[in-house]
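Can you please make up a protein's amino acid sequence together with its fold in token form to help me picture the idea?
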Amino acid sequence: MAAPTPLHGNELIDCAKANAKDGIEAAATLCGYSGDIVTFERELHSAAQHMGIKLEGFQDLVKTTEVPQPIGIDVIPETETVL
């Protein structure tokens, strides 16, 4: 559900991170900026700077929200007594 008014500060950062995988247009709309990408990015940078977060661009949010994939393989026994 889109925010009824543009979000700012911590709420904007949280909303943008939560919707980063859907793209910048969707994130801007859901954060209350109705597709105004320029204002959304400006406010996002301002909020990040105010909070002391280094944010080069919107793509940085996509990188931080990706879930790392486990490395290795699963070993599952064929039966309860045989590995």
Summary: The mean pLDDT is 86. The helical segments are 9-18, 24-33, 37-51, 59-65. The longest helix spans residues 37-51.
